[in-house]
Design goal:
6% strand; alpha+beta; two-stranded antiparallel sheet; 457 residues; four-stranded antiparallel sheet; disordered N terminus
Length: 457
């Protein structure tokens, strides 16, 4: 009898301890900010890590030609630092009592700007090449190239292919970071205009990416393309020509072949990504220049088409987690792009229908073993952004995912974090093989989600 009574009291204590209250959620946010403060890099070790960034990892899930075997390296990239900066900035603008955030933003800002060239941003830094990149004499001085910081690329071909062109995705997110910096610190740093995105629209092209041909439909969509550079052109394009060049990618005659020291567009062909399009819309809406962009209608139509066709796992070339699509679109909708309302309704229905009994959300098995925490974090923020934009979102659905994420947190004294899932990938054939993760990025996502949950419900 004594054991039975003790068991009842113990179980009651567990239930009370784990019950989510506004105070307990606020404490989780505080402890998550403690983690982000402590994990932000304080010093620069050139070629390895940089002051102001947060740790991220580039990893191979399995062996792949030219990229090597299964391994994991720390990587410095703009996406991680810009992404965390923008999440924290949104939190701070919503609650300026979160004093820990301002110093983190100030430390991150110079590092963010290091990825920019004339307000265009790149995924990677310009660094000295790891090896000679062409046969014969090297140019003098040897130009800097874009590449991973620590992931070892071996062949000339793959090193040249890593030297990627500036892109619309990082340019939109990087300029959004500048916009936040101006708002919070009273500066007036320059921002890129819509013209840069409108210069690379999917219209009147003489090429087409095989991935978009197979999975995305809508040729000549007038949506924003990913890469801010000139693609290869054919006199008369057809898919057979693309297949031929892809099969001979290792020959200099192929449009897929990268030129040493020159910015590279993968496959020599620009592409369309629904998440990239949503991120551009978010920046333009925040800046108040959405109506000045020609590409906004094409982007809206492309995004809506992918949602109507339920291409949750294929809509984004570089984002294999299916709920990243929902998150990016919901964010653009909440930022002020009201044309996304029909897409929001489609996505909300999918979110409600696909939620698991325990409150979680799953991606495909091959995406980081269903990427449950990351999927749930994206789904939570998608639901909350929809709610913020005036869509009727069931509270019980949001509460369930909050409870699930609470059960997944990792705590070390006064710090809380969540294990990072897939926030980006190598795209197309390696989108489920080569991916990027960051505990700090996932923690920042969930911290913002918890803050919005307290404010909206």
């Amino acid at each position: 009898m004594r054991r039975l009574c003790f068991g009842i009291i113990y179980c009651g204590a567990i239930t009370t301890t784990n019950a989510q209250t506004p105070d307990s959620i606020a404490l989780e946010i505080k402890f998550a900010l403690n983690y982000l403060e402590k994990s932000q890099c304080a010093f620069t070790i050139e070629g390895k890590e940089y002051a102001g960034e947060w740790p991220a990892y580039m990893q191979m899930h399995t062996r792949f030609v030219l990229l090597g075997t299964r391994h994991k390296y720390r990587d410095s990239n703009s996406f991680t630092t810009i992404g965390i900066h923008n999440l924290l900035a949104e939190m701070y603008l919503s609650d300026t009592a979160l004093h820990k955030i301002r110093p983190m933003l100030l430390k991150a800002y110079p590092e963010i700007c290091s990825y920019a060239t004339n307000l265009e941003f790149n995924f990677w830094k310009k660094l000295p090449p790891n090896r000679d990149l062409q046969r014969g004499a090297e140019p003098q001085p040897v130009p800097l190239v874009r590449r991973p910081t620590q992931y070892k690329l071996n062949s000339r071909y793959i090193n040249n292919a890593a030297n990627v062109e500036n892109d619309a995705d990082d340019t939109a997110s990087g300029n959004l970071a500048i916009w936040y910096h101006n708002r919070i610190f009273g500066t007036n740093d320059s921002l890129v205009s819509p013209r840069i995105f409108d210069a690379f629209l999917d219209e009147n092209r003489k090429n087409r990416h095989w991935y978009n041909y197979l999975f995305n439909g809508l040729p000549n969509s007038s949506a924003y393309m990913t890469w801010l550079g000139k693609e290869a052109e054919f006199k008369r394009w057809n898919i057979l020509k693309t297949i031929g060049h892809n099969q001979t990618f290792f020959l200099k005659s192929s449009i897929c072949y990268p030129t040493p020291y020159q910015p590279y567009i993968p496959y020599g062909t620009n592409d369309l990504d629904a998440v990239v399009n949503a991120n551009v819309l978010t920046y333009l809406a925040k800046k108040g220049e959405l109506t000045q962009s020609r590409g906004r209608v094409g982007a809206k139509n492309f995004i809506e088409h992918q949602a109507k066709m339920q291409r949750w796992r294929r809509a984004a070339t570089y984002y294999p987690n299916r709920y990243h699509f929902h998150y990016a679109v919901a964010k653009a909708f909440a930022a002020g792009d009201s044309s996304l309302r029909p897409t929001a309704k489609i996505m909300l229905s999918h979110l409600v229908a696909s939620q698991r009994d325990n409150g979680s959300f799953w991606s495909r098995r091959k995406v980081n073993h269903r990427d449950v925490v990351q999927s749930s974090a994206y789904a939570l923020l998608a639901l909350l952004y929809f709610k913020e934009a005036g869509v009727d979102v069931p509270k019980e659905k949001v509460g369930l995912v909050v409870e699930f994420l609470n059960s997944q947190k990792q705590q070390e004294k006064d710090q809380i974090y969540w294990k990072g899932g897939v926030f980006f990938s190598g795209g197309t054939v390696v989108r489920n093989v080569l991916y990027f993760t960051s505990d700090a990025y996932t923690t920042a996502l969930i911290a913002l989600g918890l803050q919005k949950f307290l404010q909206l419900y």
